[in-house]
Amino acid sequence: SRWDNSQNMDVLTGHLGWIEVICGPMFSGKSEELIRRLRRAMIARKRVQVFKPIIDNRYSIEEIVSHSEQRLKAENVSQARDILDKLDWRTQVVGIDEPNFLADGLVDVAQQLADSGKQVIISGLDTDFMGRPFAPIPELLCVAESITKTLAICMRCGNPAKHTQRLVEAEGLIVVGAMGMYEARCRRCFEPGIPKQELLEFAKVKAGNLNG
Ligand code: ADP
Ligand code: ZN
Hints:
two-stranded antiparallel sheet, globular, 5 helices, binds zinc ion, single chain
């Protein structure tokens, strides 16, 4: 499409490595797009390795899973450097999901992989629950050959959504969770922090669960 430059890579010759970034809010189809690209690489008989941080065990241990229940086998790492340790030198395509959990050192690792001829595909959140740039995506965008921004659907109004709205009160930048804890919101409907209305509804549900 006009909105990303992945088709520019069609002209490449030889064993050039590069970095592709897929970014956007939660529920925008980042994992689906990562899985789609990795499946196509496998169909093309390329050697593929997929990595994900071990902290993200919401759905399964050794797989990446999209909200639409698409799955792909993945190797767990606890920090970016582990990717280099676990890398098979014959691997041609490296997929990395949830890079926000691996921020420290991931840019260097991605650069090393691309410099040594690997196709690196990374899918992660570009902004946090306050709407701020979310490491390591900003820096990755600067070193990437290809950038795709995915949008979700705003759960308030149905418009294209670029924000991840946190619905529950929690400490810290990263709170692992999915449905019920976060939803996609457009620029107009996004409220950095916790919206009072949602907090009320959440409290009501919680009280209901306790009573029932
Ligand atoms: P991400 O990796 O960006 O969190 P996923 O690839 O895991 O997204 O999931 C995308 C899927 O989530 C969509 O295809 C759709 O089935 C579902 N979905 C749930 N809520 C929304 C939403 N608000 N907007 C778009 N898709 C949504
Ligand atoms: Zn909206």
